[in-house]
Amino acid sequence: MEAASASIGANRGTIKVTDGSNPIAGLELSIPAKSYPDTRQVKISSTPVQSHTFGAAFNPITPLIRIDNGGGYSDELMNVKIPVKVPAGKFAMGFIYDDKTKKLEGLPLVDRDAGSITVATRHFTDIIVSMIDELLLR
């Protein structure tokens, strides 16, 4: 389901998912100035997670989020603020999911608050957020 799209040039830009009925409503992609040498069409969409093969410790709390920027790496780190509710005693982390290798890669956690986590990346593919009990991380 397409959630948002915009053309981003050499100047900075922010793309927000504003449709309150969308499962990723509130998602915000911040692209700093000079991230790309040319204009990029950026599209954000999501797909429900029906099942996974990552074991009992992997508990998706978002749909699979696809951010398509036409490919390639940006020259600057971009932040993705992802709306999630993380109860006390839980830890949430964002991952890139590679559909070709069927593997996950952790994303750097930049910030978190009661209603979101923010991750940083220089390239896009599929992103998903999982939550785990903090006691299991000790």
Topology, pairings included?
Elements: E1 2-8, E2 13-16, E3 28-31, E4 40-47, E5 64-68, E6 78-83, E7 90-98, E8 103-106, E9 109-113, E10 116-121, E11 126-133
Antiparallel strand pairs: 1-4, 2-3, 3-6, 4-5, 5-11, 6-10, 7-8, 7-11, 9-10
Could you characterize what this model shows?
The chain has 138 residues and is mainly beta. 0% of the residues lie in helices and 48% in strands. It has no helices and eleven strands. It has strands spanning 2-8, 13-16, 28-31, 40-47, 64-68, 78-83, 90-98, 103-106, 109-113, 116-121, 126-133. The strands form two sheets. It has a six-stranded antiparallel β-sheet with strand order 1-4-5-11-7-8, with no helix packed on it. The N and C termini lie far apart (37 Å).
Gist?
By secondary structure, this protein is mainly beta. The protein has no helices and eleven strands.
Can you give keywords for this protein?
globular, 48% strand, five-stranded antiparallel beta sheet, mainly beta, 138 residues, six-stranded antiparallel beta sheet
- Biggest pleated-sheet summary: 6 strands, antiparallel
Secondary structure class reads: mainly beta
Count of DSSP strands: 11
Mean pLDDT: 92
- From N to C, what is the helix and strand string? EEEEEEEEEEE
* Percentage of β-strand residues: over 45%
Radius of gyration: 15 Å
| Amino-to-carboxy terminus distance | 37 Å
Instruction: Choose one word for the global shape.
Output: globular
**Which stretches of 5+ consecutive residues score pLDDT under 50?**
none
In percent, how helical is the residue content?
A: under 10%
Biggest sheet, spatial arrangement of strands: 1-4-5-11-7-8
